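[stage:ingest] chain + small molecule (arginine)
[stage:ingest] validated
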Amino acid sequence: MKKVVLAYSGGLDTSVAIKWFKERGYDVVAYMADVGQEKTTDAAIARAKKAGASKVVVKDLKKKFVTDYIWPALKAGAVYEGRYTLATALSRPLIAAEQVAVAHQENATSVAHGCTGKGNDQVRFEVTTQALDGSLEILAPVREWEFKSREEEIQYALKHDIPIDVTKKSPFSIDKNIWGVSVEAGILEDPNVEPPQDAFQWTRGAEKRNLKEQVIEIGFEKGVPVSLNGSKKSGLDLIEELNALGSQYGIGRMDMIENRLIGIKSRETYEAPAATILIQAHKDLESLVLDRELLHYKEGISHKYAELVYYGLWFTPLRSALDAFVEETQKKVTGTIRVKLRKYSSHVVGRKSPHSLYKETLATYSAKDKFDQKLAKGFIDLWALPYKK
Ligand code: ARG
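[stage:predict] done
[stage:export] C-alpha cells:
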C-alpha cells in the first residue's frame, strides 16, 4: 500500500482529503505542524483518526520557526511589497521541510498538502519538497478533486461521518501563526469594501479601547531581539508578549492588494503586531550603527530577500548567500530601542547602542561643535566638478 504524509490543518479540506486518499488506496499519516496557529489539537487529532488516518504526528515547530526562519527574515528586513511581514510565507518552508522528515521516518513515498491551485502556498510547499527530496511524489488533492464547492465537501464529510464543525466556520480564509494572521476571501474579495470588524482576529475591538500611550524598550544583540523592558526573554516569549500587547492597540494591521507569484492580484488583510514593532525597531537600530553605504545597499537585499521568501525559494543557494551577507551586517546591531505604542501605530522615540555611529560633536549646532565647516566648500566643489558649466 502506498503511504502518504498529509500536511493536516484540522480544517474541512484536509479532513476530507484523508478520506479521499483512503478511497484511492493510500495509507494516510496526518501531520500537524504547530507554528502557533491556536487550533484545538485534540479535536483535530480525533477528526483525523475518524476520517481514516492510520497515524497522527504533531510537531511543535514554534521555537524552530523563531530561530531559523523569523529571526533571519527580521535581520534581513524582509517585507513584501512594502507591507506584508510574511507570516504565512515564512512558515511554509518550515512545515514542508519537517513534512519531508516525517515522510522519511514513516517510509512514505508521497507527501500531500491542502493548498488550492490559485495561491502561493502550493508553490512554497512543493518547491521545498523538491529541493529536499526530489524522489517524493507530491499530491495536491484540492487542485484535483471533484468537489465544486464547500457545500459538496461538507456533504461528503457528512456522508462519511467525518466530524466537522460547520457552524463555527468563519466567512474568511484565515492562516495564523506567531508572526501574524493572514485573512482573505468573503467580503474582502471586494477591494473597495472596508474590512469589517470580524475580519480582524487579534486586533478586533481596538477602536473602542481607550488605552494610554506607553513606551516599551526592546533590547537587541547582533540583530536579534533579546529583551523587553530590561528583562531577558526567549524569542518565542518576546514575540507572544508583543503580540498580546500590540493587539490591544490595533498595531500592525494591513489591508493590501498584493501580487501573487502565480500572476493574480489578491486582497488580503494582515495583523502582525509583534512583527511590525520588531521590524521597525530593528531597522531603526541599524540606522544608528550601520554606515551609510552598507545601510543603503542592504535595502536592496531586504527587497530581494522578501521576494525570495514570498516566491517559495527558501531552500536555495541565493537564500544561503544572502543570509551570510546579512549575518555580517548584524555584528554591530546591538542596543536598545524605545518604542511608543498608541492606537494603531508604534513609533521609535529613542535609541542607543555601544556601536552608535552618531557623533554629537559632529551633528550639533551648539558650542560643542567639532566639525570644520570650512572643509565643506572643497568637498562640494569637487562633487560638483563633473557638472560644472
Ligand atoms: N497572501 C499570503 C501569502 O501568500 C497569505 C496566504 C494565506 N492566506 C490565507 N488567508 N489563508 O503569503
